[in-house]
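Technical note accompanying the year-one report. For the benefit of new consortium partners, we illustrate the data format agreed upon in the data management plan: each record pairs a sequence with a structure-token string. No post-processing was applied to the example shown here.
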Amino acid sequence: MKTAERWFSPRMHADISLVRWGHYGTPVLLFPTAGGDAEEAERNSLLAACTDLVDGGRVKIYSCDSVAGQAMVAKVGSPAYRLWLLNRFHECVRYEIVPAIHADQGGPQLVIAAGASIGAFNSVAVMCRYPDVFRAAIGMSGTYEIGRFYEGEYTDDLYVSSPVDFLPGLEGPHLDLLRQRFAILASGQGAWEDVGSSWRAGGVLGSKGIPNRVDAWGPEWPHEWHTWHAMLPQYLDELT
């Protein structure tokens, strides 16, 4: 079963879509790649790769537009504006998209965040920023040093949006809760992959006592959809 809705986000001053697949199961928020929309995963057969899990009621998958990623790719406005939008996109996820997921599920449930490429960054970022609503993150082929996509601009919006930047200084109850969460950082080592980014991000998480695992899939796995077709159902099966 597939349903969709669209609304105007007051946080981003832009429209955003949320699409759902499945009848019931553990809620999974699947982030698109940088320029993707809420239906990108379906068009590229990533949903088909998870058919058994969806049809079996193990997971219910949700996906939203990559509003900040689309602006990043198209270089809309200044780098500072695009970083503002990234921060507000994460806030929209927490305060608009997650409540919509809870309403659809019939009540609050901890969500698994997942995504490939820039979607991997977003999945790890929202788990680290909002461990009160996300219990795990699956980052596939991620680039976690996000600042390099913003022309060298460094703002408060980048700091609060990027785990590799804000985690080293994080202490207190937020960190205590985050230490009860889990991140999988998976990467191939084929064409266009950078497994080193996953190792570096895993090192930052590990230095703060946040459980994580880096999985290197080898040189036969490039930065392509068929890699993520293999990864996502394996990790959803593990986490659910």
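Partners are asked to follow this layout when depositing records. The chain has one domain: 2-239.
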